[in-house]
Amino acid sequence: MTPRYSCALPPGADIVDKARLAERLGYHRVWVFESPAVYGDTWIALARVAEATERIGLATGVAIPGLRHPMVTASAVASVEELAPGRLVVTFGTGYTGRSTLGQRPVTWSELARYVRQVRSLLRGEAVEIDGRPCQMTHLPGSAPDRPIGVPVWVAASGPKGFGVARELGVPGVIVTAVPEGGDQSGWPEFALLRFGTVLEPGEDHTSPRVVEAAGPGYASTVHAVWEHGKEAVDAVPGGARWRAALEADRAEGLRHLVAHQGHLASLTDRDRSLVAAAGPAFLHAGWSGDAASIGERVRKAGVAGVTEIVYIPAGPDVERELHAFAAAARS
Q1: Which domain holds residue 267?
Q2: Are residues 41 and 163 in the same domain?
Q3: What is the DSSP string of 257-287?
Q4: Which GO molecular function terms does the record list (predicted)?
Q5: What pTM does this model have?
Q6: Is residue 13 assigned to a domain?
């Protein structure tokens, strides 16, 4: 089966224009980032896109427990579902970037599971205990859709614990960052794969300014992850020691998380641009970068492996070009 192609976008003033273009180009869904220290509000963006489009699906990419009370999330789900019935998928993750930028560790898998259960119970119209007290959606007709509200709830799964929780919760879909290899990753009705990169034009390579700006943010995000797991470990990455020195010169210890992830998956800071330059051609290998035929072949192979949806992250200053190019490659 050939996977459908979707896109992931940061909440911003121009998300409606990008979502309308994605709809015209045949994208299956628009996934909206959640990282409130770096981007705008996810649910406001989803509501704007819901009102401005007709067909394209909507998804949180991904919602993070701990940023909102479960009732606030359930009410937001209800509001978007009311604007775009049947088009919303709510996906929850542990919050690598969204919480790291707040100086917090990702939530545990047990915390995520509890939160998902609470939100699903609220959407069914049930009373559920939260923080020691019962909560229930008691909206009167006209204030929200009637319960139960049947919005699918997915999990952003990673590792044995993540897939174990997803199976325990019985979610209908997962989103991952690597092509499934069988075992715990196989057999999902909906299996989305998140990918960044750029479709290369004839003659372009790792030195092309357009390629650097479009594929560089994805590569930089992988280095940010190395830094989060061990500050000095980033020195082993090409240009990592220089990057860390620049970060440490910019902010004092205890404040560096505030700026380390700026532009996450969307644009390059000058500090991150030096990382990409130091990586040379290797930075193109972190995601899906190549000519249209090679991207199309990767889409095909992902489908053979069980992926049902490719979620592409267009980056750089010309997102319109990236959306056009990836759609053409995916259709091929």
Answers
A1: 209-284
A2: yes
A3: HHHHTTTTTT---HHHHHHHHHHGGGGGGTT
A4: oxidoreductase activity
A5: 0.97
A6: yes
